[in-house]
Amino acid sequence: MQSPAASRLLFASVVASLLALACQAHRREDGSSLITQPIPSNLDLKIPPSDSAHLGAAAIHPRREEIEKRIQVKKSGMKIVRNPPDSKLADLGVRSWPRWAFAPSKFPWTYSANETSYILEGKAKIYPEGSDEGVVISAGDLADFPKGMSCTWEVSAPIYKHYKFND
């Protein structure tokens, strides 16, 4: 018979393996992943206290710094949050914002006000003025663009977004 501590460790290992298998199982027919964010390889496992008589469930929490790196991109004043929680979108009132659509193309743009956008569909690469490196935005991204920012949009798949100008 295994000790309770060994059982908890085995359980935590099984949970981590199941998460990895779930990622592999969520693939589209073309081989691309349905999961847009990687599962962090470095997890903090919170295991119930050893005096507990039962195994309980191991709660897995990625480290805060990993979450920040994984879901936020900041460049030239832009801030992109990948797949924000529905609660954040509801708090912002995103679904009530106006919509904007644009076909695949390449065009220059300068923001006359701070803008927050939520990408519903599509994909684009945004090149801040003076930079050869672009930032990709796609469905599920919440993006903040600062007033005065000049950039070039390179839309590769039709973009549909909600947007709001902020003071």
Automatic annotation (TrEMBL):
It holds the Pfam family Cupin_3. Residues 1-25 form the signal peptide. Residues 90-163 form the (S)-ureidoglycine aminohydrolase cupin domain. Keywords: Signal. The keyword Nuclease does not apply. InterPro entries: RmlC-like_jellyroll, RmlC_Cupin_sf, UGlyAH_Cupin_dom. This is (S)-ureidoglycine aminohydrolase cupin domain-containing protein. It comes from Linum tenue.
